[in-house]
Amino acid sequence: MIPAQAAVARSERTFAGWLVVVVVVALSLASGCSPQGPAQPQAELRVAVSYELASLDPHIDNSLEAFEQTSNVYEPLIVLDRGLRLVPNLAASWSNPDATTWSFRLRPGVRFHDGSLLTAEDVVYSIMRLKGDPTLGMRSQLSEVTGATAESGEVVIRTGRPSARLLNELAQVPMVRVGATHEALEKLPNGTGPFAVASWEPGRRLRLRRHEGYWGARPAYPLVDIEMGINEEKAIAGLRAGRFSLVARINRAGVERAALANPRYRLVRQPSLFLTHLAFNVVNPILPGSANTPNPFRRAEVRRAIDLALDRERVAAASPNAMAARHIVTQMVFGHDPEAPAPDRDIDEARRLLASAGYPNGFDVTLHDVNPGPNPPAEEVKAQLAAIGIRVKIAPAPTVEAFFGPLRRREFAFWMAGDGAMTGEAGGLLASQFHSPDLARNLGVENYGGYADPELDRLIEEADILYDPGMRLPVLQKAVRQAERDLFWIPLFHSSVLFVAARDLAFRPREDLVLRYAEIGVAPR
Fold this sequence. Notes:
20 strands; D-Maltodextrin-Binding Protein, domain 2
């Protein structure tokens, strides 16, 4: 059995989650206690978020925003606790009798919101639904799975090759009832989670009610009201009026000032696993977007020059509560190497490298940015690269899809984006983003720049067959160092995420930043 260790769950849209303003609101809080004690029936947790939930189907969207909401209604076999450790959930236990076979014994007595018992057939149906429908975003978490069967009341999952990431990926896969269709899940959501859907106004409001037949600890709040599409102005107004209980994942100075001005609130910061970075197309011989200009980013000297030209502290300072980054994963992530070298800024050496690559006078390039509006860190990068002759034009994307669509088609040469090891393990990030593209084996599926390094591929694949974390860690660290050496990504900063909590609220951020309403309670008086 793979010991509890965390891995990476990502999607193309995941990183947008830390860019948006997310406001969590709790109104009309009555006296009560933490989630472990008796709930107060009058209490209602009111949540306001800046994003809109597109669907109640928990399989359709692999974004942080969608997972955040649906994970309160639907559950996976295994979950990550606050420290990003794997713990049993719908599965009471599991074993792997051989390297490509996993057997899960289900927790007895778990009921869906409609009262029906969870069975092995439900789990098999959920997995095979994802495997059989390429339009479902969550299927990316089952990249190594070849099939699932119900055998003697247990769920048996088989993979095409050994995968030390499987359990971590299963922690992102919610289970639905046998026969559930997209239409049914939109109209009558039916999960096993601590909350059931009471009502939904698409794009506006989601109301949840406590699942009184829940198998686990009873949530403190019987009702959760989530307002969608809340802007910063409304968030500030709510804080000034003292009607919010929790404001989450928001890095806006105005909101912070409004909270500090009201003694009802306290500020809590949580380091983010998301990394904002620069990335390059290194496969196209011609610079994407140009007629016949050779692609400078294929030259390692050019990428190294950009790395040496950057003052990351200044770039991070341009983003509220950000921390400069020199590595592709943080120290919280399994696979981080604290001994990996990180060279200092060196403008003279950067200019020398550009000249040796054939660009003594620099060059012109477009930096594509996923942010729809002004982005101070991108402007800071532009200003710093001008010092070595690289003349940058910033092209913001009006929507997330307007960014990722052309990126998937390799129409960008140079971009600024974010991604995160949100479950705290480097293997999945490496396999998806840094392995050479091999779609038949589900490797390199988000390697949009065409980066390829046979030695890195070997290390990534070696790490994925090492189930012992003591053996796996040094291989992952070596793979991370190899990826950082080639500078396919240039790390810029991690955001430190701000939470504003009412002093009478029992709330502590999770390391993955996901809001679990069952974990929120009332502070003891």
